């Protein structure tokens, strides 16, 4: 099973049968983890002051004064709707998964705070499950797995105001695809189709604090993700090659209780290529350049023994391609389509008591695309609705 872009060929009513493929499409909006950050809409590049910092801005690790560990899990539920004229088709899926874990340990070197850390993150979750009926009978189609990163990293506080850091991302993971006909007398069940992913890149971050204002920046070096899979008796290693990307953030804390933050991620994805090993050919992915915006706030209600943070946020979710497009059947050339961007609203809260921080966040995302079909229908509308619940805990060790 190769990489799928966020595209679907619309040819009349044939698109109705292709809806489950939309749910498999890979979202390459790589972001960090943690319920605190996600509750703030992901506006965390300049905040980055806890054990999840390695996934947002590794320079933020240098602010840690005690050893810390974190763990993050999430529940996601998605619904996809495709309307073609008077015909409507829905597809939905939901599941619970482990998302992130990290440890960080501060040291002193020449009077400067140096922090070493390591993390695991599931950056792209590719799980989906579909049940239906075809000419053979009832079937269950399922994909398990995703694209992960194992990230050792380090940061140093160069001056009281300036810190730098880096995370070295070892990309791994894979997917298992199965197609099962449980009631078929011929036991028409496919053996699992296994893909394995690998790659490497580096996230380099900087953080500066000037009284009530903090500024952050992250540069992510070019990334090549290799997809190793079997096709017949042969084994192939295709690659999808992403360019360098950039992220910038700023936050303002007018007092000790309130933080306001904003981020922008710039991704020149039009330079993304796919090396097809089977055909020994390199293709342009024809992705759009994307820019993601994130804003958020955090307010701390301080009690005698506990602190109760409350958070709100918003971020955009730009697609690399319009999921509804048409193609010239003679030349294979795609017609120009409008860029599509989803909108996500988030909120969250937490409890800080002693050395333990517990946080929860909720995200609601929506997307609507209107297009035209090449068949007898007058129009096509594709909609997404996504609900995410993120839970995380951070432990500070004395």
Quick structural gist:
The chain has 398 residues and is mainly β.
Name of the CATH architecture: Beta Barrel
Tell me the name of the CATH class: Mainly Beta
- The CATH superfamily is known as Outer membrane protein transport protein (OMPP1/FadL/TodX)
Share of helical residues: under 10%
Determine the mean pLDDT. Answer: 85
By DSSP (H or I, 4+ residues per run), the number of helices equals 2
Radius of gyration: 23 Å
Helix-strand category = mainly beta
The coarse overall form would be globular
Low-confidence stretches: 1-24
* Number of discrete domains: 1
Order of helices and strands: HHEEEEEEEEEEEEEEEEEEE
* Fold-level CATH name: Porin
Number of strands: 19
Strand order of the largest sheet: 1-2-3-5-6-7-8-11-12-15-16-17-18-19
């Amino acid at each position: 099973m190769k990489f799928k872009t966020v595209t679907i060929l619309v040819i009349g009513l044939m698109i109705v049968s292709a809806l489950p493929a939309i749910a498999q499409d890979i979202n390459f909006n790589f972001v960090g983890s943690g319920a605190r950050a996600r509750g703030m809409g992901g506006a965390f590049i300049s905040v980055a002051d806890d054990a999840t910092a390695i996934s947002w801005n590794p320079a933020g690790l240098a602010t840690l004064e005690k050893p810390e560990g974190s763990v993050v899990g999430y529940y996601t539920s998605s619904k996809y709707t495709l309307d073609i004229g008077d015909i409507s088709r829905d597809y939905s899926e939901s599941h619970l998964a482990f998302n992130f874990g990290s440890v960080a340990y501060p040291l002193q070197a020449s009077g400067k705070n140096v922090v070493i850390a390591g993390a695991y993150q599931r950056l792209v979750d590719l799980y989906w499950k579909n049940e239906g009926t075809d000419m053979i009978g009832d079937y269950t189609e399922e994909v398990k797995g995703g694209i992960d990163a194992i990230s050792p990293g380090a940061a140093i506080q160069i001056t009281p105001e300036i810190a730098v850091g880096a995370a070295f991302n070892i990309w791994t993971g894979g997917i298992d695809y199965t197609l099962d006909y449980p009631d078929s007398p011929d036991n028409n069940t496919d053996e699992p189709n296994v893909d394995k992913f690998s790659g490497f890149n580096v996230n380099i971050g900087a953080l500066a604090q000037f009284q009530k204002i903090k500024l952050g920046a992250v540069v992510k070096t070019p990334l090549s993700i290799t997809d190793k899979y079997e096709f017949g008796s042969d084994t192939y290693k295709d690659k999808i090659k992403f360019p360098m990307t950039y992220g910038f953030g700023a936050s303002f804390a007018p007092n000790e209780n309130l933080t306001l933050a904003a981020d922008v991620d710039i991704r020149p994805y039009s330079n993304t290529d796919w090396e097809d090993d089977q055909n020994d050919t390199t293709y342009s992915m024809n992705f759009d350049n994307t820019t993601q915006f994130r804003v958020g706030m955090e307010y701390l209600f301080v009690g005698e023994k506990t602190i109760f943070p409350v958070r709100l946020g918003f971020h955009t979710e730009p697609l690399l391609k319009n999921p509804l497009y048409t193609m010239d059947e003679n030349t294979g050339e795609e017609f120009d389509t409008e860029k599509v961007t989803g909108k996500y609203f988030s909120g969250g809260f937490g409890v800080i008591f002693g050395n333990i921080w517990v946080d929860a966040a909720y995200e609601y995302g929506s997307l609507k695309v209107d297009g035209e079909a090449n068949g007898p229908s007058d129009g096509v509308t594709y909609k997404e609705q996504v609900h995410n619940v993120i839970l995380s805990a951070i432990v500070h060790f004395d």
